[in-house]
Design brief:
alpha/beta, 2 domains, Aspartate Aminotransferase, domain 1, Aspartate Aminotransferase, domain 2, 3-stranded antiparallel β-sheet
């Protein structure tokens, strides 16, 4: 047919190569589309052998040759116990019998995965931005259309599919600044200090990247609370910085004590250069809400010791206990006077993932950075420009968090009803969880003042500790693995967050619906009692 000197499809040479590739991949060669048996030439067999020899050569990237900082990274929230939970789910789907019918993943704060319904107004605006033809639909309220049009006007080509400025869409940064001013009672906020991010995690990682420098004893030390959210230890490991632990006071409702900060700082000065102080308020995994006096003490300490402050405030809407109130570090810093406000360098973070929204998948967030050196501001924008821009749908979702319906708009009543329903439900579940844990022998749980987790302390008998050592596991990992295998409940051991030597905990989200949460807590109770009996 004239396609080559050897006939159809490139001739015998191509045919031999295709056959060799098929053989190397473990497939039978199909041969040309004609009747008859394929005859393997000696050349084809030789080619297949050579391909197999090449396929088995030593890999360039191995555990020995990979970046050691990446290998050092650990992220307990999605660690070994979650992988085991995934294996058990597969076994259940295959019909393998277990003492339970489902795995309850209480390891992560993923609200929608746990059944929380999305906020209608937020989804309406994002839908309108995603498919602008809906702007002509009478099914959507005018206040949602107004916000969608404004967001789209800030996008190239009026499309959510275009890149934005690396710092984020300008009108959304303006809305974030207005939100911060309202939240903080009129404390000024500059849109130029606002950076839209891929969740709060992206902003935290970016700031740490630009802060970390030096070598040996001058290597940057980063002070983090223990227990902590594993993003911090993971980022510190990846960046080859020095982790400096300060311990929260479990006996005093996980309070932050400045004397403990001073101890940690002074000890760290012997082996690194501590210059970053991270605060999580409300706390994750510990759920404490810091009072005003505590925040003032921390700011004074940072000012005195010349530390760069990172304030992780993603749970600022999640405050449940009476007498507790969220205070932003930015507001307290401003109210402490110009000596502090004009000098303390502060980066604050917020997200669409928590609060009443629970929109984890949109990966929306922002950071506000104040008192940054002008030349460093340019370096930060340069660093952020490497990832081009945060997800634009996430930027739109963040806009609705900071620019929700207001009284007089048609969507306000429904928005407030949905928001209050979510937060009231979380407050109810926080109290329920605390009360039920404290009724279990050998379990002690501090009040869940905020956030969306319990972090109970558990007693583990010495026999169980010895068995855990025999399995080369941390005792609380052993406990949580047994809990998963016997009940289907997936929680994260406290060792993944850090804890004082000799104490054991686990973190569990309070997000499941009340009915499922009560079943979960009863199962934990029954398991714990049997665990104590077995290893007593």
């Amino acid at each position: 047919c004239g396609r080559g000197p050897g006939g159809c499809r490139g001739g015998r040479t191509d045919m031999a190569l295709r056959c060799a590739a098929s053989l190397a991949a473990g497939r039978q060669p199909r041969g040309p589309r004609r009747e008859g048996t394929v005859r393997w030439s000696s050349a084809a067999k030789a080619s297949a052998v050579k391909i197999n020899e090449k396929a088995s050569r030593e890999k360039i990237l191995t555990l020995e040759s990979m970046n050691p900082q990446v290998k050092a990274v650990e992220y307990a929230v999605r660690g070994p116990i979650v992988l085991k939970a995934g294996e058990i789910e597969k076994e259940l789907r295959k019909g393998i019998k277990k003492p339970f019918t489902e795995v309850i993943k209480a390891n992560i704060g993923d609200a929608h995965a746990m059944g929380q319904r999305p906020i209608t107004f937020l989804r309406q605006v994002v839908a309108l931005c995603t498919y602008p033809n809906l702007l002509d639909s009478p099914s959507f309220p005018e206040d949602a259309k107004k916000r969608a049009r404004r967001i789209l006007q800030g996008c190239g080509g009026n499309s959510l599919g275009s890149y934005t400025a690396s710092q984020g869409i300008n009108c959304i940064r303006e809305d974030v600044a207005s939100y911060i001013e309202r939240r903080d009672g009129g404390v000024p906020a500059d849109p130029d200090n606002i950076y839209l991010t891929t969740g709060a995690s992206d902003g935290i990682s970016a700031i740490l990247k630009i802060l970390i420098s030096g070598g040996g004893k001058s290597r940057t030390g980063v002070m983090i609370p223990i227990p902590q959210y594993p993003l911090y230890s993971a980022a510190i490991s990846e960046l080859d910085a020095i982790q400096v632990n300060y311990y929260l006071d479990e006996e005093n409702c996980w309070a932050l004590n400045v004397n403990e900060l001073r101890r940690a700082l002074n000890e760290a000065k012997a082996y690194c250069n501590p210059k970053v102080l991270c605060i999580i308020n409300p706390g994750n995994p510990t759920g404490q809400v810091q009072n005003r006096k505590c925040i003032e003490d921390v700011i004074h300490f940072a000012w005195e010791e010349k530390l760069f402050l990172l304030a992780d405030e993603v749970y600022q809407d999640n405050v449940y206990s009476e007498g507790c109130q969220f205070h932003s570090f930015k507001k307290i810093l401003y109210e402490m006077g110009p000596e502090y406000y004009n000098n303390v360098e502060l980066a604050s973070f917020h997200s669409t993932s928590k609060g009443y929204m629970g929109e984890c998948g949109y990966r929306g967030g922002y950071m506000e950075v104040i008192n940054l050196h002008p030349e460093i501001k340019g370096q930060l924008v340069k660093l952020l420009s490497v990832r081009l821009c945060p997800p634009v749908s996430g930027q739109a979702a963040m806009d609705i968090v900071v620019n929700p319906p207001v009284p007089g708009e048609e969507s306000y009543a429904q928005f407030i009803k949905e928001k209050e329903s979510v937060l009231n439900n979380l407050a109810k579940k926080a109290k329920l969880t605390e009360d039920m844990f404290n009724k279990i022998p050998g379990v002690q749980c501090n009040p869940l003042q905020g956030a969306m987790y319990a972090f109970p302390r558990i007693f583990i008998p010495s026999k169980a500790i010895e068995e855990a050592k025999a399995h080369k596991m941390a005792p609380d990992m052993f406990y949580c693995m047994k809990l998963l295998e016997e009940t289907g409940i997936c929680v994260v051991p406290g060792s993944g967050f850090g804890q004082r030597e000799g104490t054991y905990h686990f973190r569990m989200t309070i997000l499941p619906p009340v009915e499922k949460l009560m079943i979960l807590l009863e199962k934990v109770k029954d398991f714990h009692i049997k665990f104590l009996e077995k290893y007593a």
